[in-house]
Amino acid sequence: MATPFVVIGGDAAGLSAASKCKRESPDREVVVFERGQWVSYAHCGEPYFVKGEVDKLENLLSLTPADVAERDIDLRRGHEVVAVDPDTDTVTVAGPDEEFEQPYGDLLVATGARAVTGPIEGSGLDGSFPLHGLDDAAAMRAFLLDPSEDALADVGGEEYVDRERVERFGAMDPPETAAIVGGGYVGVEMAEALSAHGLDVHVFQRSDHLLVPFGEAVGEVVADEFRERGVTLHLNEEVARLAGEGRVERLECGDGTALDTDLAVVGVGVTPNTDLLDGTGIECGERGAVTVDEHGRTSAEGVYAAGDCAEDDHTVTGESVWVPLGLTANRAGRAVGSTVAGDPTPVGSIAGTAVVKAFEEECGRVGLLEDGARAAGFDPVSETLTAGSRSGYYPGAAETTVTLVADRASERLLGGAIVGTDRAAVRIDTVATALEADMTVGELERADLAYAPPFSPVWDPILVAAKVLNGKLKN
Ligand SMILES: Cc1cc2nc3c(=O)[nH]c(=O)nc-3n(C[C@H](O)[C@H](O)[C@H](O)COP(=O)(O)OP(=O)(O)OC[C@H]3O[C@@H](n4cnc5c(N)ncnc54)[C@H](O)[C@@H]3O)c2cc1C
Fold it and tell me: Please, is 62 exposed, middle or buried when counting C-beta atoms within 10 Å of its C-beta (0-12, 13-18, 19+)?
């Protein structure tokens, strides 16, 4: 019998790989080590759980441990892989009772990423949350409850949740003010979530606009939406520290600006969990994510990497990049599962397609916007315009702002961004598809997109932007 397919990490990439391998090769032994108690969970739903739109933690699970066992996958929760040895094809595992060696035939590193707190002092104080994991989300929601309520019953997930943490935060007086450090997608989603609880919400962002990867046009619309909703924006503010006696009481910026606050969300970025590969010789890129080939293979024989801990080839540039997102983690894991089972399957490229909701505004981005395109060596031409989302006479039409970017010489489409309240986010998928197909702006302009008054004007906002950008390229 072949030595097992060993997977490190029991979430999107890891369990997609384990499930696919088991489906295609039922006789193969598949062992998954997960250091936490949660498996197959949706980080992406955490802000909506804190907001209260998702009722219980267990609603954020795709598969329970019992479902995984039914697939005949040997899932070991509470088991942390602490070392990988590609010379002997073994991993060292710290289990609840003992440390042991596990041989592998194939190994998938699917360890994801962790939140960083940057150089912000005091981010370990009680009341400061990174929001990376269901236990952070549970503790934050417990904190928002009145102490007379039963926090454990409210959050659910009792089989797996960190009960002590939930009870501790549940017993505290609920916060009245929230400081969100970082105006990226976690910060933006949390601003909406915490406003829904009636908190006085402040967002601190070190650059001059929110949602930097979505471009300035999107950032400005979201900033207006935030102000309208009562969220206070502190742009161009670098947070230096969180201070307080045992728990967060104050936020301080480098320029002396300060805010009294009793809750802080630090959403300043993530870094790949690849420390366990230090010294193995497995190649990593400059951000620390594992470099892989088109099938997710690392530089070590029989070792694969997928998801937030791995790089992917960029759809537009073909360069290896690190863009940690959900679909690509699931897709790469599934592809590795097939490959390991004997059906070599490409992990696919990544265009950085991302969508986020900011109260009623829906934002999307894909590919390279102007700065990214210039940095990649293109001579970018871009167009930003606002068009209607439906026929003007049809109820519900809303302004939709679209940016498209193209390369001057080849007229190839390089990327785009969109914002609006009426199904704007899903429209970015048209641009993502065009990038995948390597289309020029002219080809996109001639795409036969659907039209009927309740859904779109005759010229969809993406087509309007393509038409105007094409005109610009021709002049
Ligand atoms: C708040 C939030 C919102 C998000 N929203 C979106 C969204 O809307 N859209 C989107 O595309 N993406 C979103 N993401 C990103 C998305 O969740 C990730 O891209 C996805 O979860 C990556 O899956 P993964 O399996 O690679 O890593 P993870 O989900 O991080 O799983 C890795 C697992 O490995 C385990 N592990 C790590 N090291 C070890 C070890 N040494 N031994 C054993 N186990 C280990 C970890 O405990 C973890 O369970 C969001 C993320 C967060 C935090």
Answer: middle
